[in-house]
Amino acid sequence: MRTIRDVLLQKGPHFNFIDAEATVLDAIHTMKSKNISYLIVTENAQYMGIVSERDYTHKVILENKHSATTVVKEIMTRDLPIIGINNTPEECMVIMNASKSRYLPVFDGLDFKGVITIHDLMREAILQNEQSSAAMKKAMEDKSLKFY
């Protein structure tokens, strides 16, 4: 059974960090240039939370704040459910659904390991489905197997 450790290894290293003191305008420019919907917020190289396009629309635009003068730590999401590297993708889907979150920070003890997104879990579900289908097809083609 695959774990979140496997999903993170397949996903590769994170490149989408931003300092908590950066402006929201810097964050939006970074998200646009990298074609991503969230950034991992750090302070003194420690995980602090996530800032997403949704945070921007709800906490800057709708509150009539200014992107150039508002800093990321003022709008970031801090209270996301935390998962471990040994959680399964299925467990993460349940957690995301219950918390209505699209992002889950991953920790190994106190060490931040990355973020799992709803898109990562979708890709994982597709991969698992493809592997199951391939195994079923192989079993059906195997002439030595008899189905009763």
TrEMBL record:
PROSITE patterns: CBS
Keyword field contains Ligase: no
Keywords, sorted A to Z: CBS domain
Pfam family, one: CBS
Domain CBS: 9-69, 76-132
InterPro entries: CBS_dom, CBS_dom_sf, Diverse_CBS-Domain
Protein's recorded name: CBS domain-containing protein
Species for this entry: Limnovirga soli
Source lineage: Bacteria, Pseudomonadati, Bacteroidota, Chitinophagia, Chitinophagales
